[in-house]
């Protein structure tokens, strides 16, 4: 994922209450967001720290 924050902005209205974690910088440097899909699976969108 090139830009987690842009994807969050595009999806937040659609995801609604299914957002588990808004974009957050992890201690190891990845920028990550978590949400649940329609089947209840946890999905992680992230931008690697190496980009």
Could you provide a short overview of the structure?
The model has no long low-confidence stretch (mean pLDDT 92). The chain is α+β, with helices and mostly antiparallel strands and 51 residues long.
Keywords:
37% strand, 3-stranded antiparallel β-sheet, alpha+beta
Quaternary state of this entry equals single chain
Cα-based radius of gyration, to the nearest Å: 11 Å
| Average residue-wise pLDDT | 92
The count of DSSP E runs of length 2 or more, i.e. the number of strands, is 3
Shape, please?
globular
Q: Strand-residue fraction?
A: 35-45%
Number of helices: 1
Helix content class: 10-25%
Give the low-pLDDT segments: none
- Give the SSE string: HEEE
Structural class, please?
alpha+beta
Largest sheet: 3 strands, antiparallel
Q: Report how far apart the termini are.
A: 10 Å
Can you list the strand order of the major beta sheet? Answer: 1-2-3
Mind explaining what this structure looks like?
With 51 residues, this protein is an alpha+beta fold. 24% of the residues lie in helices and 37% in strands. The chain has a three-stranded antiparallel sheet, covered by helices on one side. β1 and β2 form a beta hairpin. The protein starts with a helix and ends with a strand. The mean pLDDT is 92.
What's the structural blueprint in terms of helices and strands?
Blueprint: H1 4-15, E1 19-25, E2 31-36, E3 42-47
Antiparallel strand pairs: 1-2, 2-3
């Amino acid at each position: 994922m090139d830009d987690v924050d842009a994807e969050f902005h595009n999806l937040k209205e659609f995801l609604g209450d299914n957002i588990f974690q808004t974009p957050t910088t992890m201690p190891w440097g990845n920028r990550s967001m978590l949400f649940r899909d329609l089947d209840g699976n946890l999905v992680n969108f992230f931008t690697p720290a190496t980009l």
